[in-house]
TrEMBL record:
Organism listed in the record: Methanobacterium congolense
HAMAP family xrefs: RAD50
Keyword DNA repair carried by entry: yes
Name of the molecule in the record: DNA double-strand break repair Rad50 ATPase
GO BP annotations, alphabetical order: double-strand break repair
Function: Part of the Rad50/Mre11 complex, which is involved in the early steps of DNA double-strand break (DSB) repair. The complex may facilitate opening of the processed DNA ends to aid in the recruitment of HerA and NurA. Rad50 controls the balance between DNA end bridging and DNA resection via ATP-dependent structural rearrangements of the Rad50/Mre11 complex.
Similarity comment text for this entry: Belongs to the SMC family. RAD50 subfamily.
Subunit note: Homodimer. Forms a heterotetramer composed of two Mre11 subunits and two Rad50 subunits.
Xref: InterPro entries: P-loop_NTPase, Rad50/SbcC_AAA, Rad50_ATPase_archaeal
Length: 900
């Protein structure tokens, strides 16, 4: 298959893009997100309706209702055109046409019909087409970097083995489900005999339980009659017991009341006697406590006088301190001012010193930097000398300077490059012509074969032709093929000669490229830069050394002034302390006024204390003890006065208690007579209650037994019904089990076919030799010095060369890239049935390091082994290999192609 044109309308980000493609290498370039990969996706969509979106509507450009993709291509020398479109309103449409003379004649319409016709033309479905033709991002890198197991899995996925493995695993889940159903059915059928036996036992148990229920029902009726008689007797005794307990409780209550009232009467008589004694004590205390207020007044006056004396002493001390602080200020004021002035001068000097503080470190840094620059300059001079010596050896000439090397290269290099470019262009032209001849002959094979098998119908336009016309067409095709073969043989010889010529000039070019004048100039520039740096550093060092002298003078001046400042510090601190103390004490006149007031109050209190002494009848020794003693007598007086106040209340309560005591004694006599009349026997009552409890327990036990047997009867009845239903269902289960076993045998057989030892193994065994053969053919075309290449069962590569057998790990990076590319092309050739005309590579250099990326680019540049190659890439180095460059750009959300 060869693609001629792709046209996209409103497809993803392409509003109206048309791309013409021919044989050779076509490079699709652009920034990330520009819409490059959409061109490859348009091919798979047009052919097989395959796309990367979850829904087809996602392929329609935003703010539009319809999109379409038209693809023009060749298969076996015939041209076809396929168009697919999708509308949000009217759905999807597809049509396929074949070129007849100058027009495309309809072949098929409808999505499914068109897809099936494309499968027939290409002899593969969509998945196989993509695996064969489309090399996804990272596949080349994976074939180098992945482990053998991962590579095996990757190749298996391309071959379609992964889908077989998935089907094999999924069928295991299905078989497990059916096996579970089979076990259930077998278990149910196994229990059929036991069910019938259980049915007989259940019927017998049911009859036994029904007989027990009938007997217990009679026992319950008899026990209920006996229980009713005992309950009536117990109710009568309960009534007598209630009367007996009520009367007994009332009698006991009255007796307790009499005891409490007799105690109250005795208590009240004692209290009245105590009150009479208290009245005599009160009359004795009254004269003594009248002296208490005078003594307390005298004590308060003395306490106040004591406090004033303390305040007087404090004020005298404050006034003395104020006078002392004033004297300190007067004597130290001049020293204080000298200290402040000197401190200010030191601060100014320190500020000036700080301006130079970092210069010492900066001076050290500049001196270290000069040593490093000097070393760097010497190293650059050595490298310049080494490069000149190497250039002399390469070009077999003695060079004394860089200018000599430049002059020599200017005369030699352009000629070598021109001759090499000429050889590359000639090779590319010959390879393109060879590829076109192969395509032409391949396209001629199909009509020749069809003409051999038809008589009167043209195989291309399907119109009627005569035998003479058929013979004329057949001879024309055969003659054209023969001419192409002769031309092909001449071109092959010419290609070998051109490759030898190219190799000679490539060798010369590589030697010239080894001489890097840019590096020499860089080293010389580095020497000049180093000299300038040294001059600048020397200037800075001299400037910094002058500043260091100033810094040393400033440090000496600061140290001298600090010594003087230290001598003044004591007098300065004394001045500050006196000043702060005076500020905290405020005005001294206020303290003198307060002192005069206190002295006046002192004299007044002394006079007051003298008057209290006269009233008390002289000075009292131990004044506070006397006051405490009289306070105790006063408390006793008030307490006794309260007790005397209750005399009348106690007298009244005594008269009332004596009257109530007489009435309660009469009530006790009446209740004693009533209790004798009740005639209640507690022992007889207890016997009746025991009999009643026993009957209650018996009756509840009988009813529980009856309820339990009734439950068992219901359970057995339900069980019997279930057994009948299960027995009826077993006939259906037996038929179901037979059918299930037969179906599972079929599933097991199919699953074995999909397993690793079935179709998977056959597919690997069939494909591996073909892949190995095709990989070997492609690898040989890269002209490495290896004689053979082998693939083991895990698709691990072994190559054979002059040094013997080597694995991938033992060869160079460029050779690894060549092996990986040959293996991928070998897989593609195998999947396409040996008819490889087209391959599409999406970012083939991605995930490769810089060295391997460059090696792959060089291989792709030299490739002419496939008629048509489409490469999506952002590597500008591939432009030299392209026959056709398509630059994809995106502006304001729309992608378009600029042909180069």
């Amino acid at each position: 298959m060869i693609i001629e044109n792709i046209k996209m309308e409103n497809f993803k980000s392409h509003r109206n893009t048309s791309v013409d493609l021919g044989t050779g290498i076509s490079i699709v370039m652009g920034e990330n997100g520009a819409g490059k990969s959409s061109i490859l996706e348009a091919v798979s969509f047009a052919l097989f309706k395959q796309h990367s979106g979850k829904r087809m509507e996602q392929l329609i450009m935003n703010n539009t209702d319809k999109m379409s993709v038209t693809l023009t291509f060749q298969v076996n020398g015939r041209r076809y055109r396929i168009k697919r479109d999708r509308s949000k309103k009217s759905g999807a449409h597809a049509k396929l046409g074949i070129m007849d003379e100058n027009n495309f004649m309809p072949m098929a319409t409808g999505e499914k019909t068109v897809t099936e016709e494309v499968k027939r033309l290409l002899e593969m479905d969509g998945d196989l087409f993509l695996n064969a033709v489309y090399v996804r991002q990272g596949e080349i890198a994976d074939l180098i970097e992945k482990s053998p197991a991962e590579k095996k899995q990757m190749i298996g996925k391309l071959l379609g083995i992964e889908s077989l493995e998935k089907a094999w695993k999924n069928m295991k889940i299905l078989l497990d489900q059916y096996n579970g159903e089979k076990l259930k059915l077998e278990g149910r059928l196994e229990a059929l005999k036991d069910l019938k036996s259980d049915l007989k036992v259940q019927n017998k148990d049911k009859d036994t339980i029904q007989a027990k229920i009938q007997k217990i029902t009679g026992d319950i009726e008899e026990t209920e009659a006996e229980y009713k008689s005992l309950q009536d007797k117990n109710d009568s005794l309960n009534s007598k017991k209630s009367d007996f307990e009520t009367t007994s409780s009332a009698l006991e209550s009255r007796k307790n009341l009499v005891e409490r009232m007799e105690a109250d009467e005795k208590y009240l008589r004692i209290k009245l006697d105590e009150i009479e004694a208290t009245e005599k004590r009160i009359n004795q205390l009254k004269p003594k406590i009248d002296k208490l207020p005078v003594l307390k007044g005298m004590q308060d006056a003395k306490d106040e006088l004591k406090g004033l004396k303390k305040e007087e002493a404090i004020l005298n001390k404050i006034i003395h301190d104020i006078n002392g602080f004033k004297e300190i200020l007067s004597s130290n004021e001049s020293h204080y001012k000298d200290y402040l002035k000197l401190e200010s001068e030191i601060c100014s000097l320190q500020y000036a010193r700080d301006q130079f503080a970092g210069n010492r470190s900066l001076l050290d840094n500049y001196r270290d930097r000069r040593k490093k620059v000097q070393t760097k300059m010497e190293q650059s001079m050595e490298k310049v000398s080494d490069v000149l010596e190497k250039s002399s050896k390469i070009l077999n000439t003695d060079f004394d300077s860089v200018e000599d090397v430049e002059a020599h290269l200017e005369s030699v290099k352009p000629e070598v490059e021109a001759r090499l470019k000429e050889a590359v262009e000639d090779i590319h032209k010959v390879q393109t012509e060879i590829s076109n001849i192969k395509i032409q002959n391949k396209g001629l094979e199909t009509p020749i074969q069809e003409l051999k098998h038809v008589e009167d119908v043209c195989p291309i336009c399907k119109s009627n032709i005569t035998p003479q016309k058929r013979e004329e067409l057949l001879n024309g095709y055969l003659s054209e093929m023969e001419t192409n073969k002769k031309r092909y043989s001449k071109l092959e010889k010419s290609l070998k000669q051109l490759k030898v010529k190219k190799g000679i000039f490539e060798s010369k070019s590589l030697k010239i490229q080894d001489i890097n004048l840019g590096i020499i100039n860089e080293y010389m520039g580095a020497v000049e830069d180093s000299k300038k740096d040294i001059e600048d550093i020397d200037s800075k060092v001299a400037e910094l050394e002058d500043k260091m002298k100033i810094l040393e003078e400033l440090n000496a001046d600061i140290n001298n002034k600090n010594k003087v400042l230290e001598g003044l510090k004591g007098k300065y601190e004394a001045y500050i302390g006196a000043k702060n103390s005076l500020e905290s004490l405020k005005d001294s006149e206020k303290y003198e006024e307060d002192l005069a007031k206190i002295q006046y109050h002192v004299e007044a209190l002394k006079t007051k204390i003298s008057s209290f002494v006269d009233i008390a009848g002289g000075i009292v020794e131990n004044l506070q003890e006397e006051i405490n003693y009289l306070e105790g007598l006063k408390a006793e007086y008030h307490k006794l006065s309260g007790a005397v106040a209750q005399k009348e209340s106690f007298s009244t309560r005594l008269m009332e208690t004596m009257a109530a005591l007489e009435g309660t004694r009469t009530e006790i006599q009446d209740l004693t007579l009533k209790l004798e009349a009740v005639a209640y026997n507690e022992e007889a009552h207890e016997l009746v209650k025991k009999d009643l409890d026993a009957k209650t327990i018996l009756l509840n036990d009988l009813k529980g037994q009856k309820q339990r047997f009734s439950g068992e009867e219901s359970q057995i009845t339900r069980s019997i019904e279930e057994i009948h239903k299960k027995i009826e269902s077993y006939s259906v289960d037996e038929k179901k089990l037979t059918g299930l076993k037969d179906f599972m045998k079929l599933l097991d057989y199919i699953r074995d076919l999909y397993g690793k030892d079935g179709v998977q193994r056959d597919l690997r065994n069939l494909s591996r030799p073909l892949i190995e053969h095709n990989t070997r053919d492609f690898f040989e075309k890269f002209n490495f010095e290896y004689s053979d290449i082998k693939l083991d069962e895990d698709y691990d590569v072994t190559i054979y060369g002059p040094a013997g057998q080597n694995s991938l790990d033992m060869i160079s990076g460029g050779e690894k890239i060549a092996v990986a590319l040959a293996l991928r092309l070998g897989i593609t050739q195998t999947l396409s049935g040996g008819n490889l005309e087209l391959i599409m590579l999406d970012e083939p250099t991605i995930h490769l390091d810089a060295y391997r990326r460059q090696e792959l680019i060089e291989l792709l540049k030299k490739m002419s082994i496939i008629p048509q190659m489409i490469i999506v890439t952002h590597e500008t180095d591939l432009e030299d290999a392209a026959d056709n460059i398509l630059r994809v750009k995106k502006e304001e959300g729309e992608s378009f192609v600029v042909n180069s």
